[in-house]
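Action item from last meeting closed. Structure (88 res):
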């Protein structure tokens, strides 16, 4: 587990599996460092883009039924959340 801090008082633990999947998505969609993506992923807005993806993946793994947890399903759900200029 890896801690993702989204402000001085709060953190969320992200599993190594979620971290690896998130890094794959970051690479796949060429997500740049910076901020702004958290709003679209509906995670705390204080997160940078990469940590926003990591938290979103962790949330999806925890809340989605196991039959919808394939990489393809997560990739499609992620692409649907991206702003129009990123979804390709």
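Sequence:
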């Amino acid at each position: 587990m890896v801690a993702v801090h989204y402000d001085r008082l709060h953190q969320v633990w992200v599993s190594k599996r979620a971290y690896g999947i998130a890094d794959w998505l970051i690479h796949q969609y060429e997500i740049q460092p910076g901020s702004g993506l958290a709003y679209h992923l509906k995670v705390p807005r204080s997160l940078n883009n990469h940590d926003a993806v990591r938290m979103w993946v962790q949330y999806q793994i925890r809340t989605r039924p196991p039959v919808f947890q394939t990489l393809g399903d997560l990739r499609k759900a992620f692409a649907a959340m991206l702003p129009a200029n990123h979804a390709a």
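Note appended to the action item: The chain has one domain: 2-81.
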